[in-house]
Amino acid sequence: VMEKQDLQDSIKPQKVEFHSLNFNSTLHWQPGWAREARDTLYFVQYKVYGQSTWQNKDDCWGIQRHVCDLTHETSDIQEPYYGRVKAALAGVYSNWSLSCRFTPWRETMIGPPMVTVVHSNKSVTVKLQAPRSPYKRKRGSKIPMTNYYDLLYQVFIINNLLDEQHSVLVYEGKDKVIKIKDLRPGVSYCIVAKTYLPMLDRSSAYSSRQCIVL
Prior knowledge:
The protein has 2 helices and 18 strands.
C-alpha cells in the first residue's frame, strides 16, 4: 500500500496554471517527479467557479502532453474558471491538482498590434491593427480585442543613429492611422507599437520592428 501511495504522490501533476493571450487560453502543468514520467497519462477537467460539477475535457483525457487548450471552454470571458489535472501510471491514479482561479477578461495578456509602415520623403504613416480574439462573428471574421477592452495604441520610434534602447513615444491613443512628420532624410528609423489597457494598467509586448530609411 505504501508503494502505491508513493507512486500516487510521485506522478501528481505540479504547477497547474492557465496561460492566456488574446483569450487563447491553455492549461499547463509540469509532470510529477516519477522517473517513468514519459509513460504517464493526464486527465483534464474544468468548471466555472461556483458550479458543483466538473466537466471532462474529452480532447485532454488520457493524453501524454502537458498542455490542454481550453479556449472554447472559457469563452464566457467575465466568468472565473478552474482547471484540474490528474495523472495515471501503471494503473495508479494521482489525486487532482488544481489551478488557481482564472478569469479570462482580467487575466488574458493582450498581444501587440499589427504594424504596417508607409513612408514618403519626410514622414512616416503607421497603420495599426488590433490583435484578434479566437471568437468569431456570425460572418466568420475574428472579433478584435478592441471589442472587449478600451485599448490605446502606443507608437514608439527608434532612431538607429542613437542608442538602440532609446525609443521615443510618439503617439498614444485610439487612432489606427498615425502620421509622424519632420523626420530626417537618409536616417534609418524603426517603429514599434504596443497595446495599452488603462483600466488594468497593462501593456502588451512590443510589436515586431518595422524599419525604414527615408
